[in-house]
Amino acid sequence: MATIEECREALDRLSDNLARAEGGVRGATALDRSLSCHITDLDQTFTGRLDGGRIRVDAALAGPPPTKAEIRLAMSGDDLVALVAGELKFAKAWASGRIRLEAGFRDLLRLKSLL
Fold first, then answer.
1. Strands, E, within 1-115: which ranges?
2. Residues 7, 39 contacting (CB under 8 angstroms)
3. In what order do the strands lie in the sheet with 71-75?
4. What does the pLDDT read at residue 27?
5. Among 61, 37, 38, 62, which residue's Cα sits nearest to residue 50?
6. Measured between alpha carbons, how far is 27 from 50 in angstroms, rounded to an integer?
7. CA 109, CA 115: separation in Å to the nearest integer?
8. Under a CB-based contact definition with an 8 Å cutoff, are residues 48 and 58 in contact?
9. DSSP assignment, residue 40?
10. What distance in Å separates the CA atoms of residue 55 and residue 34, rounded to the nearest whole number?
11. In the chain, what is the straight-line distance between the N-terminal and C-terminal CA atoms, in Å?
12. Mean pLDDT over residues 75-100, rounded?
């Protein structure tokens, strides 16, 4: 099972990957939205913002997200680490329910290029 530190490092790597993205992926990440990522097996939530093509983590809290972020992710720590390492495909994991993504309809349309 991935640790909270490994999950934080994975989010930092994901942020770096998004910042280096080009084309349609770069455009999809150009949102300014509140973000939460609940690590279900650790019952920890990272909260922050997707801003300027980067993920900024502001806090790591015990339990589910305390407030409803505009973009909400939920997955196990192992799935987060595998996703960022390229070992898990987002679309397949999302379709099977391993990863939950909730956002407004417009945001989902913009984020679909990341899937």
1. 32-39, 44-51, 54-62, 71-75, 100-103
2. yes
3. 54-62, 44-51, 32-39, 71-75, 100-103
4. 61
5. 37
6. 12
7. 10
8. yes
9. T
10. 10
11. 25
12. 94
